[in-house]
């Protein structure tokens, strides 16, 4: 009896080793891709284009596309939202500045860019994989799904933009912030000192 159990355990050991090696190699390449956001997003656009072409040519899998759209919208909201929401959290000193005289606090996202990219890429890969199984091709009238998704997107983005305006934060920074110094007073030129 020991031989039978020993054979099963020895068959599982190489599978576990292979999984561990694959996980380490995957994490290594994922870590190496971190400082290259443009290349990462271009790769994601390629995967998204392949998915869109696959759905277009197969003329199906609209439910999968709708679910993918809702998931991406959810990720986008997390990406555009601050980590500490002034409406939800008490003012404990970690909130966004609301006045010009408040201390500058950097915008910290609820969902960091790398996790946002990784989640979207994973979602497109899973959705692409689902298009190879006919059980996920549920017949639906796709224009209704598209209209419903557009209405959801507009209402959600409107709420998010109003939140951004109310609490005066911009989730995007382009380049390094430059200090311009104090602006001259509008009362005219200063009098020379004697």
Automatic annotation (TrEMBL):
<dbReference type="InterPro" id="IPR004932">
    <property type="entry name" value="Rer1"/>
</dbReference>
<dbReference type="GO" id="GO:0005783">
    <property type="term" value="C:endoplasmic reticulum"/>
</dbReference>
<comment type="function">
    <text>Involved in the retrieval of endoplasmic reticulum membrane proteins from the early Golgi compartment.</text>
</comment>
<feature type="transmembrane region" description="Helical">
    <location>
        <begin position="63"/>
        <end position="81"/>
    </location>
</feature>
<dbReference type="GO" id="GO:0000139">
    <property type="term" value="C:Golgi membrane"/>
</dbReference>
<feature type="transmembrane region" description="Helical">
    <location>
        <begin position="41"/>
        <end position="57"/>
    </location>
</feature>
<protein>
    <recommendedName>
        <fullName>Protein RER1</fullName>
    </recommendedName>
</protein>
<feature type="transmembrane region" description="Helical">
    <location>
        <begin position="140"/>
        <end position="157"/>
    </location>
</feature>
<keyword id="KW-1133">Transmembrane helix</keyword>
<dbReference type="GO" id="GO:0006890">
    <property type="term" value="P:retrograde vesicle-mediated transport, Golgi to endoplasmic reticulum"/>
</dbReference>
<dbReference type="Pfam" id="PF03248">
    <property type="entry name" value="Rer1"/>
</dbReference>
<comment type="similarity">
    <text>Belongs to the RER1 family.</text>
</comment>
<keyword id="KW-0472">Membrane</keyword>
<keyword id="KW-0812">Transmembrane</keyword>
<dbReference type="GO" id="GO:0006621">
    <property type="term" value="P:protein retention in ER lumen"/>
</dbReference>
């Amino acid at each position: 009896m020991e031989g039978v159990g020993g054979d099963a355990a020895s068959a599982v050991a190489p599978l576990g080793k292979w999984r561990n090696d694959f996980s380490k190699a995957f994490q290594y390449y994922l870590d190496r891709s971190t400082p290259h956001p443009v290349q990462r997003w271009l790769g994601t656009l390629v995967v998204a284009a392949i998915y869109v072409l696959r759905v277009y040519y197969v003329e199906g899998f609209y439910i999968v596309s709708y679910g993918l759209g809702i998931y991406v919208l959810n990720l986008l909201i997390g990406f555009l939202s601050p980590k500490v929401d002034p409406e939800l959290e008490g003012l404990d000193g970690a909130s966004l500045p609301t006045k010009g005289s408040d201390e500058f606090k950097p915008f910290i996202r609820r969902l960091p860019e790398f996790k946002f990219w990784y989640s979207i890429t994973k979602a497109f890969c899973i959705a692409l994989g689902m298009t190879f199984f006919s059980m996920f091709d549920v017949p639906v009238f796709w224009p209704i799904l598209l209209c419903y998704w557009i209405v959801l997107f507009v209402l959600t983005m409107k709420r998010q933009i109003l939140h951004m305006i109310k609490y005066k934060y911009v989730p995007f920074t382009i380049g390094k912030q430059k200090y311009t110094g104090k602006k001259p007073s509008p009362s005219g030129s200063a009098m020379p000192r004697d």
